[in-house]
Here is the input.
Amino acid sequence: MMCPDDRDAAPEPGSGADAVPENPANGPSSRFFAAVGIVPGMRVLDIGCGNGDLSRFVAGLAGPGGEVVALDRSDDVLASARAAKADPRAAPIRYRTADLAGVLPDLGRFDAIVGRRVLMYLPDAAATIARLSDLARPGSIMAFQEHGRAGLPAGLGDLPLHGRLYDWMWTTVAAEGGDTGLALRLASLMRAAGHRVETARSEGILLEAGEPSFLPTLARVMLPRMQAHGVATAEDMDPDTLAQRLEAEHLAAGGTIVWDLAFLVSARIGAGR
Here is the structure.
């Protein structure tokens, strides 16, 4: 997977010596969430907001006459989200601490509820969807982007190093209690909750030969978690040479690598199955 969730901080792209390639797993987000029906004046709930990247995007869709409420369990990442510069052309954002696995605070009613890479980390995604549905006005939008383990990566040639890294990352997510198959069940969960699914599709996350890869950055961020769960060690990964070895393997294989899959599902709440 290209990024376990938006809590995995990495240097921002385009900042001199600290610059890193942008995370391509977020590429589908703008295309998907811009098309689910969020319009100016809406009240939007972003669950598991992390660094607030998605919150700021939907705030732009809702416009200055709308409102975004963004929830996360971590006060540290919320502090980072609050530090981001506000856009006067976007809806104001209220960041709140909340545990999505428990009882949600009284937040009022929403026209849209969104989330990215969050349901897979909850102990009972179906129960969370039910609780969120109670916060929505009839006919409101519910839209999620989730990622799932799908037997990748795939390319034109052998990719043993990419494959090992992929397995380490997903094994770590599973060891942390993440549901690595949730994304493939997401549309079914929405229908079971009584919502009408309007969009259910997937986008491949692609790596192109000769272009900077986000994988070395992600691997470094995840390494302490891999070590904590006995999945891989620094000696196994050798992060100091990882970028060069991944690049060499990709160039030898040639072409495009399909690294990950983003599953994108939107529904109308309470509109039947």
